[in-house]
Specification:
- The complex is a heterotrimer of chains A (453), B (277) and C (339).
- With 453 residues, chain A is of the alpha/beta class.
- Chain A has 14 helices and 9 strands.
- Helix content of chain A is 34%, strand content 11%.
- With 277 residues, chain B is α/β, with parallel strands linked by helices.
- In chain B, helix 6 runs parallel beside helix 7.
- Chain C is globular and about 65 Å long.
- The two termini of chain C are 26 Å apart.
- The chains are: A alpha/beta (453), B alpha/beta (277), C alpha+beta (339).
- The interface between A and C is large, with 46 and 43 residues.
């Protein structure tokens, strides 16, 4: 008979003591439990929980103090905010959501401890062994093809000349007057492809263009080019290096997130915001992310290029939304199969992470030399951990610029993960990232550190 | 001998002692096939030492081949592999792959005035040069040793200094970066010491090992003092994963530190400083 | 530019005969061929000829992953008490790869020079290589990002293949190149013929520097400028037929059980040369990109004793995948202008 492996994270102050209380009162708790004592339920990070499932746990229980009774005041609030988001992500990734449970048990509630652990174990026993971890070889099956549905929308008619001229004029002015040392924009390469360009002198602004292939999110270059400490770098005049950057509405939202996270300061950049009707994908149609875009005008800018357009109230439904809806309707096992077949061809090149303007950790948690959260191998389990983990790290931050998916050399639809989480965050917190200089609701900030603009 | 160059030989830790602050000297005994493989290694070569379960890392062999199938490795505790090695004790097993790399051209050093400059744990791969010279003292001219560390507790092989000083025509100069009340030798960087000692470039060979920035400044100063590039030897280090010239990681221009080095002279690598600075 | 040997014994076969033969191969061995995997064409095991993607197609990944897979187990480690048991894990199994592009086979030849011909030989690569047969398929035309002819290759170059197929009217010309190929061809039993057919246009498109010119450009500002748009994403290295940098590490399998694995890595990565103490050579993007190009055209060929070639096979995948628009052919043209 299958006996599930249950890992229980118990906080020192309440639930671990609650477990003791149950023991002293001779109340029966399942022997399946492997207890791990932590200082606080808020310390139980999502990466740790994912690692636990990766290592073969059939169920993970996190028990903390009741809300209002946390020894550290807000630790359990943290757990309460984050774990449901993780649960949504894991469920989307193919893990039955019932396998992760967050609950509250105080030091004196021995009976409650026994009841919750017994209930949970019974439920996981019924679900059966977890199929999360893949062993051995997998025949590289083709997954169900992603829908290429009727919903492709053609690129709207656009005139680029005016905006191209305005961008050039502004760049010329900024560079000539010394207001900025560099303008990051778009150019057309010798091969006829649009790509990022770095303009340092007014004479070169003729390279700058605006067209339907300006899909790159240029705000990603800002953090590396601008030092955290403004005193460190200056241009030839000895004044601080300021950078001009050409952004679309999605890119401008990225800048707000970077500002909220103190990755750069507002004075360091001159934002040339351009109104956008959408970018082209292969085949000439509108990119999926542009189909569902609500902002057509940049949300933050110093200079506006193009006529401002009102944001769309209701998020338009795109092909990716259709795919997510299909996946939501499927069983966890079907979703698991979908994702494993997608990650199968992942080569863990990290192009997705490098292209992402918000992935800025000096050493990525999933690239540590000591393999703390994930091994180095390019195997199915490792790849899945990396992608789900990265998606979690972007929860409440990702603006949907889709650079990750665009950079992927294997065309893996990873932004579906980010989109699913964006929906979850909006549902739970009424929050959409990057519309103001406000950090993600599930990012922890020490009190006093966050400054209102 | 293993036909698979990625397979380590088992080695027994016969001695573990503290060499300096967070630096241990591990003495490994090889048996059977391992002893066979290391039968004729030369000073300057290195080996990969495995802390099984954590990984392996390259270490210069810090003693003389005459010691038999016994290899000394100086290990500074910095990352997961070295921490794993530090946690082992006498009697434990490690893996050893090698001998790898090239060696010091000791024949070229004979009859010359030798200037040996070691910074911190960089002294470890230089120790076999000093030992080789001392064991055949007549074959070499003067020996000037400049030994440096950031602080006193980081100086390596302190118990051998007296023996070095006692050898004929051999001088030992010590320096630490930061002043210390218990220290009554030179205070300052090794480049300051080099200026003070001012060895003559006449019929001289220098051998330097230490942090990359030290190697850069020392070799520059030696050149300014009149040492010819081909007479300035260095033993370099880079992050390595295979040690066989396959994984590509340790390249210095078109040379691999693991195969074409780690011993180089500045004529070979003087203009390829970018990759290890 | 290579011309098929007009006097060689070759076979003329129709598409149907080819398919039937491939189906036979797939039944008795592992047949790897370009297959559609969720919209991406990759060299993958196929159950039959109907799964093979036909037409001008450059699979998204090169054939190097058959011989040098992204992750490979080198040995296992078992710790019991004070004893440690090491077990070498060499790869097993044989395979036939069909539809190999000439640029990919050229890449394999370069990796052979590194892994087999340069001592010590790599037993893992050697095992896979000995147990695999390469059946090439000449390209009918060069794609927009192709430039094999600029680096000493050609769309119909059979070098490195065991057997080569050239598209011809009503089917293919099949030619044996190696001994393995001769036996395979003999087994197939198709009627002999004299080789014919037209070779595709194979004029070189881009200039390449003389080897002696590379050192002079090392300290040019150019490398910092060209790399500004680079994201250090490493996609270029992973899709490249000749990039071969790898990392080695021990990973835990269970209590007391470990495996030592190697997997792909790239010099374009930010932490590629970082050492445990924190020192990080090639901290600048420009230094990394410079190393990449130097290695590809100057260092790597010298290291494997093929100084008169380049390690770039002109497949063009890096141009296709780069999210930031770094273009190797543009670099070659710029260097020519700077020279």
């Amino acid at each position: 008979m299958f006996e599930p492996k249950i890992v229980a994270f118990l906080c020192s102050w309440c639930s671990y003591t609650g477990a003791d209380t149950a023991g002293i009162a001779r109340l029966k708790s399942p022997a399946n439990l492997r207890a791990i004592r932590v200082p606080c339920s808020g310390r139980v990070s999502p990466e740790l929980i994912m690692r636990t499932f990766d290592q073969g746990a059939d169920g993970v229980l996190v028990l903390g103090c009741h809300i209002g009774e946390c020894h550290y005041d807000t630790g359990n609030h943290r757990a309460a905010k984050r774990l449901p988001v993780l649960q949504a992500l894991l469920s989307f990734g193919g893990l039955e959501p019932e396998r992760l449970r967050l609950d509250w048990v105080s030091a004196s509630e021995g009976e409650r401890f026994a009841r919750i652990t017994t209930e949970f174990t019974a439920m996981v026993r019924e679900l059966g062994p977890v199929h999360w971890r893949w062993e051995g070889k997998r025949r590289q099956e083709e997954s169900r093809d992603l829908l290429i549905s009727s919903k492709t929308i053609p690129l709207p008619e656009m005139d680029f000349t005016l905006r191209t001229e305005s961008i050039r004029a502004k760049a010329r002015e900024l560079l000539a007057s010394g207001q900025v040392g560099c303008v990051i924009g778009y150019e057309t390469s010798q091969r006829g492809r649009t790509r990022p360009v770095f303009i340092y002198s007014p004479e070169e602004v003729g390279h700058l263009v605006w067209n339907a292939d300006c899909t790159h999110n240029l705000s990603g270059y800002l953090v590396d080019k601008l030092p955290a400490n403004q005193r460190e770098r200056s241009n030839e005049n000895g004044s601080h290096l300021r950078i001009g950057v050409v952004v679309k509405p999605c890119d401008s939202r990225t800048i707000n997130v970077l500002l909220a996270e103190n990755q750069l300061s507002r004075e360091q950049i001159h934002i040339i915001g351009v109104t956008c009707e959408g970018m082209r994908k292969e085949g000439g149609n509108l990119q999926e992310r542009c189909v569902s875009c609500q902002e057509r005008t940049p949300v933050v800018y110093d200079t506006l290029v193009g006529e401002p357009v009102h944001p769309v109230d209701q998020r338009p439904f795109s092909q990716s939304d259709e795919i997510i809806a299909e996946l939501n309707k499927a069983t966890p096992a079907e979703r698991l199969e979908f994702w494993l077949s997608q990650f199968d061809r992942c080569i863990r090149c990290y192009a997705c992470r490098q292209a992402c303007p918000l992935c800025n950790c000096p050493t990525c948690l999933y690239e540590r030399d000591d393999s703390t959260y994930v091994g180095m191998g390019i195997g199915l389990n490792e790849k899945r951990t990396y992608h789900l983990g990265r998606a979690y790290h972007l929860a409440g931050r990702c603006v949907g610029c889709n650079e990750c998916e665009r950079a992927c050399p294997m065309d893996i639809p990873i932004s579906l993960l980010n989109q699913r989480l964006a929906v979850e965050i909006e549902k739970t917190f009424g929050y959409r990232s990057g519309l103001a200089v406000v950090p993600s609701p599930i990012v922890t900030i020490l009190s006093g550190e966050y400054k209102e603009d | 001998m293993n036909t698979n160059p990625m397979l380590p030989y088992p080695g027994k830790l016969v001695e573990v002692r503290d060499l300096a602050d967070e630096i241990k000297l591990l003495r490994v005994e090889l048996v059977e096939q391992g002893a066979e493989a290391f039968k004729s290694w030369q000073p300057g070569q290195f080996a990969f030492v495995s802390a099984y379960g954590l990984g392996e890392a390259p270490f210069g062999i810090a003693n003389m081949p005459q010691d038999g199938p016994l290899l000394d490795f100086a290990v500074a505790r910095l990352g997961s592999v070295t921490t794993g090695l530090h946690e082992l004790g006498e009697g434990d097993t490690v893996g050893v792959r090698g001998p790898l790399g090239n060696c010091f051209p000791l024949e070229k050093f004979k009859g010359k005035n030798l200037v040996v400059l070691g910074g911190g744990i960089g002294g470890a791969p230089l120790r076999p040069v000093i030992q080789a010279v001392l064991s055949q003292r007549d074959e070499y001219d003067s020996l000037t040793i400049l030994w440096a560390a950031r602080k006193q507790s980081l100086l390596v092989f302190t118990d051998e200094y007296d023996a070095w000083r006692a050898a004929p025509d051999t001088r030992l100069h010590l320096t630490i970066d930061q002043a210390d009340p218990k220290w009554d030798h030179n205070v300052g960087l090794i480049t300051d010491l080099l200026k003070k000692v001012n060895p003559s470039p006449n019929n001289a060979i220098s051998v330097t090992c230490g942090p990359p920035i030290m190697i850069y400044y020392v070799t520059r100063m030696l050149a300014e003092m009149g040492f010819r590039p081909e007479d300035n030897y260095v033993t370099l280090e880079a992050r390595m994963h295979c040690g066989l010239g396959k994984c590509g990681r340790c390249n210095l221009g078109d040379k691999f530190v693991c195969v074409d080095g780690p011993v180089f002279n500045m004529l070979e690598v003087g203009n390829m400083m970018e990759t290890y600075l | 530019m290579s011309q098929p040997d007009l006097n060689a014994k070759s076979r003329l076969i129709s598409q149907a005969e080819l398919d039937k033969w491939l189906d036979g191969l797939a039944r008795t061995q592992t047949l790897i061929a370009p297959r559609n995997v969720s919209g991406v064409v990759l060299y993958r095991p196929v159950a039959g000829s109907d799964e093979i993607v036909k037409g001008v197609n450059r699979p998204a990944m090169s054939v190097k992953e058959v011989f040098f897979p992204p992750t490979e187990r080198l040995l296992t480690i078992r710790k019991t008490g004070t004893e440690i048991h090491i077990n070498e894990t060499l790869p097993e199994g044989q395979a036939v790869v069909f539809g190999v592009l000439p640029c990919d086979a050229r890449g394999v030849r370069l990796l052979d020079a590194l892994f087999l011909d340069t001592t010590p030989a790599d037993p893992y690569y050697a095992r896979r290589r000995a147990n695999t047969t390469l059946i090439g398929l000449a390209c009918k035309e060069m794609g927009p990002t192709c430039f094999c002819t600029s680096v000493g290759g050609a769309p119909d170059d059979p070098t490195g293949m065991d057997m080569m197929l050239y598209p011809a009217e009503y089917g293919y010309m099949a030619e044996a190149i190696s001994d393995k190929g001769h036996s395979l061809l003999a087994e197939a039993g198709w009627p002999e013929t004299v080789l014919g057919g037209t070779a595709p246009d194979s004029t070189g498109r881009f200039p390449t520097l003389e080897k002696s010119q590379w050192p002079g450009h090392f300290n040019d500002d150019y490398w910092m400028k060209i790399s500004e748009r680079c994201l250090s994403c490493r996609a270029c290295a992973y899709v490249c037929p000749t990039c071969r940098c790898f990392a080695v590490r021990d990973e835990m399998l269970g209590p007391g059980e470990f495996e030592r694995i190697r997997c792909w890595d790239s010099c374009a990565g930010e932490n590629y040369r970082r050492v445990a103490g924190g020192h990080r050579p090639r901290a600048e993007k420009g230094e990394r990109l410079r190393n990449r190009f130097y290695c590809k055209f100057f260092y790597f060929p010298g290291q494997i004793g093929l100084s008169d070639t380049s390690a770039c096979t002109g497949c063009g995948r890096c141009i296709e995948v780069c999210p930031a628009g770094v273009d190797i052919t543009e670099v070659l043209q710029d260097l020519e202008r700077l020279a």
